[in-house]
Amino acid sequence: MAKKSAKKSDKKAEKKAESKAARKAEDGAARVSLLGGDTADLLRVKLGFDLAALDPRSTPGFSGDKAAGKEELDAGVPELANLQERLFAASKGGAPESVLLVLQAMDTAGKGGIVRHVVGAVDPQGIALTAFKAPTAEELRHSFLWRVRRQLPTPGKIGVFDRSHYEDVLVHRVRKLTPLETIEKRYDEINAFERQVSAAGTRIVKIMLHISPEEQKARLAERLERPDKHWKYRPGDLDDRALWPDFQQAYQIALDRTSTELAPWYVVPADRKWYARLAVQHLLLETLRGIDPQWPAAEFDVEAEKARLAAL
Ligand code: ATP
Ligand code: MG
């Protein structure tokens, strides 16, 4: 009897091991990770970059499907959360580093989804999110960088700009809100500003979510179709849509003139939301790994505190 049941459990264990191995093999086939962990190199805007040549439906470096992409996004969360906590903790020990994620895109490209699904996976206390809308009367009284400077992340934080100072060379160029000579000077001002920000310890990661006009049309149609999405629709979005080629050109110029060593631009194909989220998560992961924040040493005598606690 005992022998029989031992045999039975042996068989059970064997079967379990077999199915585990089979699942592992399947996983290996379906879950192809982003290329060797160097998403940054893959998506960085380099000399000669041509926005029009990048397919918004493509998934550079990733050959898995949507399910695999979502799985990989989930798999990245613990490391992202850990690195964010270390960044925050390190600043308590005096480390100056912070991260600034700049998100720019045409309407409906999914900036909000990045904020919710990528940034939203970490402790909200470590995040400083700012959405830049058309400037207020007070903001207009200052230089275009004034409102941006006030929202820069302090040490330990991950700052997220949902739109940014780039509006002042994008929508301003397209809609001729500012004379062209002034806009021309702004690219250099931006580069000088970002050099300063970077020298103070902020790693700048600038991301353009790149969608196609066809995908935007589908997303806008859905917003009109569904009453629960009407709140997301702004009739003005169609005015920007009508100027699509001008916006693409303004983006190309901004990318050419402001993608620098210290503050590079990354263009993320965004017709597939799951890919864009995964790519941005990896860009953040790689940035934080580069900082490699360390837990600060205790500023008290640990052994003495243990003894005090034990005595109370
Ligand atoms: P969502 O539509 O997902 O809520 P959004 O970023 O599109 O996000 P909106 O309130 O729809 O938010 O639009 C903000 C508008 O403000 C955009 O049309 C943008 O071009 C404009 N804007 C932002 N900064 C500036 C600026 N410095 N000068 C002029 N317009 C600006
Ligand atoms: Mg909008």
TL;DR?
The protein has helices at about 1-30, 40-45, 65-90, 110-115, 135-140, 145-150, 170-175, 180-200, 215-225, 235-240, 245-260, 275-290, 300-310, and strands at about 100-105, 125-130, 160, 200-210, 265-270. By secondary structure, it is of the alpha/beta class.
What does this structure look like?
With 312 residues, this protein is an alpha/beta fold. It has one domain (30-311): Rossmann fold (3-Layer(aba) Sandwich), CATH 3.40.50. Helices cover 53% and strands 10% of the residues. The longest helix has 29 residues, at 2-30. The relative contact order is 0.18.
Radius of gyration: 24 Å
CATH class: Alpha Beta
Structural class: alpha/beta
Strand content: 5-15%
CATH-defined superfamily:
P-loop containing nucleotide triphosphate hydrolases
Mind sketching the topology for me?
Elements: H1 2-30, H2 39-43, H3 66-92, E1 98-105, H4 111-117, E2 127-131, H5 137-140, H6 146-149, E3 158-162, H7 171-174, H8 180-199, E4 202-210, H9 213-225, H10 236-242, H11 244-258, E5 265-269, H12 273-291, H13 302-311
Helix pairs in contact: 3-12
List keywords for this structure.
Rossmann fold; 13 helices; 5 strands; binds adenosine-5'-triphosphate; binds magnesium ion
